[in-house]
Specification:
The protein is α+β, with helices and mostly antiparallel strands and about 325 residues long. It has helices at about 15-20, 25-40, 65-70, 105-110, 140-145, 150, 185-190, 215-235, 235-240, 250-255, 260-270, 275-280, 290-300, 305-310, and strands spanning about 50-55, 60, 75-90, 95-105, 115-120, 135, 155-160, 160-170, 180-185, 200-210, 245-250. The chain has 14 helices and 11 strands.
Length: about 325
């Protein structure tokens, strides 16, 4: 993805593209963004094996359900949870609100992400007696500490606790939304933050999984739906009628933007058509992107929810 877009939330891209529509270079900008979002592979190792999991009744999960999913599922090399948040960092001249994401200790391992400096979370960091740690974005390290190496070992005060910076992520790293701070989720669950220990309390938690070799999305979806059905029998008061959505992570990331991008690419292509009288032959629009790929994303996004969740080919 072009570097200038990595500091913006994915959800703001359609508006950004529309704002560029009046500039002389807008066709090039739109095609570049559409390529980055719809065609270029996700910036994770083995991204084709990553899937997004959520409650079929909505995009969020109860922590006890997630805990049961990862203990019972056999389709994944790893299943990680995360939720978007914001942190108030104190200790400077003024408190500052910073976009953050709370993640399970295996989150970066599931994504296949490596740090550019220091290390990322491990199981030992999630132990109750472990020091409080934080992983920061490359942009945050540069902005606050001057360089990635200088960030390691520094401390940030949040929620009346001192967090030690243990790692810096690669430039431009993001997961669905951009965050500057990554905090561990397990200590929050242990403290029953936002009532997360309750099966009836669904926070903004979602899950990402890495499929085992030889396991496809269809098989993983079937297993997860069986697990959800079992949980519905075990906990009817909170889980009756609930199921699990499993889809490729790429579909989750671009699905909401595909219709807008498809329309913008098509309209800009039409604007680039020269009148036939000037060209001396039938005007042909210039389409640098795969229209088949764009059409597929558009059909996925416009299809009824049950068809999207079951995969549209």
């Amino acid at each position: 993805m072009p570097a200038r877009w990595t500091t913006k939330r994915w959800s703001s891209l359609p508006a950004e593209i529309s704002n560029r529509g009046s500039s002389p270079s807008s066709p090039t900008a739109i095609f570049s963004i559409a390529y980055a979002v719809l065609v270029r592979p996700l910036p994770y190792a083995g991204a084709e094996r990553l899937v997004f999991l959520s409650d079929q009744g909505g995009p969020i999960i109860a922590w006890p359900d997630f805990d049961d999913w990862r203990r019972r599922a056999t389709s994944f090399d790893g299943l990680a949870g995360s939720l978007p948040d914001a942190a108030i960092v104190t200790g400077g001249q003024l408190p500052q609100r910073v976009d953050s994401r709370s993640v399970t200790a295996n989150f970066f391992a599931v994504l296949g992400t490596s740090p550019v400096q220091g290390r990322l979370f491990g199981d030992a960091d999630a132990r109750p007696d472990a020091d409080t740690t934080v992983v920061v974005s490359h942009a945050f390290a540069i902005r606050e500490f001057g360089s990635a190496p200088a960030a390691i070992g520094r401390t940030l005060s949040m929620s009346q606790k001192v967090h030690t910076v243990i790692g810096v992520l690669p430039p431009g790293f993001h997961y669905i939304t951009v965050a500057d701070l990554y905090l561990l989720l397990e200590p929050q669950v242990a403290a029953n933050y936002r009532g997360m220990q309750s099966r009836g309390n669904r926070t903004n938690l979602t899950a990402v999984g890495r499929l085992k070799a030889g396991v496809d999305v269809t098989a993983a979806r079937a297993e997860m739906q069986n697990i959800a059905a079992a949980l519905a029998l075990e906990y009817p008061e909170t889980n009756k009628g609930r199921s699990v959505t499993v889809k490729p992570l790429a579909d989750r990331i671009v699905g909401e933007m595909a219709p807008t991008l498809t329309v913008l690419v098509t309209s800009q292509a039409a604007l680039r058509v020269e009148p036939a009288s000037k060209r001396g032959r039938r005007a042909v629009p210039h389409l640098p992107l795969s229209t088949k790929r764009l059409s597929r994303w558009s059909r996925i996004s416009h299809a009824p929810k049950e068809r999207r969740d079951n995969g549209l080919s």
